[in-house]
Structure formats: structure tokens, C-alpha cells
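hey so u asked for the seq, here:
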Amino acid sequence: MYQNRFTHYSIALVLVFFCTFTNMDADGRATGAKYECLLFDLDDTLYPLSTGINLACRKNIEEFMLQYLKIEESEVPRMCLDLYREYGTTMAGLKALGYEFDNDEFHAYVHGRLPYETLRPDPVLRNLLLSMPQRKIIFTNADEAHARQVLRRLGLEDCFEGIICFETLNPPLEPADFMDALDDSQVLAGGDEERNTADRTKASSVSSKSPVLCKPSLEGFEAAIRIANVDPKKTIFFDDSVRNIASGKVAGLHTVIVGSSVLVPGADYALRSIHNIKDAIPEIWDGEEQKELAIQSAAVGTAVLA
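ran it, C-alpha cells below
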């Protein structure tokens, strides 16, 4: 009899401690956890630079500048790099200088011919992402089609709640309802995907004349934080760009530089590879370990009672 009383007390104590400490919400998430959301850059963050995607992308941008914008061939490489450094992306710089072109056509040319076949499914990263209890969102300067293609090639298309991309930060005409909940890695830009696609097509030439909002601008980060509806103090941002990390820190995010073992200005953590995330930031899984401990303790108690 005393053993049963002790067991009941032990189970109750474990469950009370667990529920009080974690403050679980209706979906089973630990609302009192240190981190509630993880924002991931896409290119050269979820896969290594060695794939050649980055180099091919720059080559396509230079060809677009030469063939469609008729910029002097000798000026293209330097101009491409200078605009990227000053405006965040070469596309944003070209727009700022007054060059007019269709956004969708630019993305189709630059990303449509990339060697995506160099990307392979990454089961290790997939298992890591699926084991993380936090919300996970992609935050990229690229367009939606490219983001989806990369995630599909990596086998990660169902690992993220949504995608914040070029179309999200640069919506056509009327802004979409960013508060809608979206499934299956939908772009965080409204609930009616068919309507949004039609609007983007209809307003492409109009929005192409507007300033481009993108990383590393602080406005871009603030927009992403607002769209994702996250608390920056409980959000970790992963990126391979030093300047993006610096801006992310200014925006109030916890930051992780990926592709480097050395901390850079504004970075809280440094990862040589995204696969090292569990060793470098084990606290991401703290809530899950506490949940597992409570479940195991309760299971042991139940076995004794039986």
C-alpha cells in the first residue's frame, strides 16, 4: 500500500514539475522555452557552398545584365559585385539604379538554369530539423520557385512551416494577409495561393519599379519578424552571410553564422556545418528532453502500479 502511495506521489510530482516548468500550449509546444522559432536562410546555409549553386547563380545574373540590360561586358562583373555589396542583392541594386525589368523574368533566368542536380537529399539534416520542437521558417532573398526547388531536392520540403521569400517581402499592389496560417511550407503571404499567384503575375511590371526589400536591410528583418509573428528574443536566425548576421543581431534575434568555425560580429554561435547544430546549440532540444524525462518517469510509475 505504501509503495502504491509513493508511486502515485512520484508520478504527480513529475507531471506537476514538467507542466509548470514548460507551460505547454494547446499544440504541445513549450511556451516557456528559451527559443520558440528558428529562422533559416536557404542557399549556402542548408547546403554547402561547394555545390556550385552560388557560382552558377552569379554567372546567370551577369549574363542577364549583359543580354537583357545591355550593360557593357567589361563592367558587368565589377558592377554585379558592387551592387550586391551595397544593396543586399544585385537585383535590388539594379532596380535602385533605375533599370526596368520584370521580376519574374529575372528570377526565371537566374534560377531557372541552375544545376539543381548537384543537390542531394540530406537525411541527417532532415532528422535534425524534425526533432526540433520550435517553429521553423525559411527566410531567403530568393523567389518562391527557387526555394521550393531547393527544399525538394534536399528532401526538406515538409520540415518548415513556411517560406519568407522575395514575393513575401515585395508583395504586388495590395499587401496580403500575412497572419493566415499556412501548411505544407507555404509562402507566408496569404491564404489564397491561387489568388496570390494571379496578383503577382498581374502586378509584376508595377512592383518591378518599387525598391526591393531584402536582407541585410534592417527593414527586411523587421518585416520578416512581423510576418512570421515571432518574438525576436526567442528566435534564432541561421545564415552564412556576415552582414546578414550583423543585421539580424540589430533586429534583436539570436544569431548563428553557418559555414564558419569562428564567430563574426553579431554572431552568438558559429557552425562549420549546419549538421553541427546539436553539438553547438543543445538547448534547442531542452524542452523535448524534459518532456521525454517526464514521460519516462510516468511510464515507470505506471509499470510499478501494474
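The longest strand covers residues 135-139. The mean pLDDT is 82.
lmk if thats what u needed
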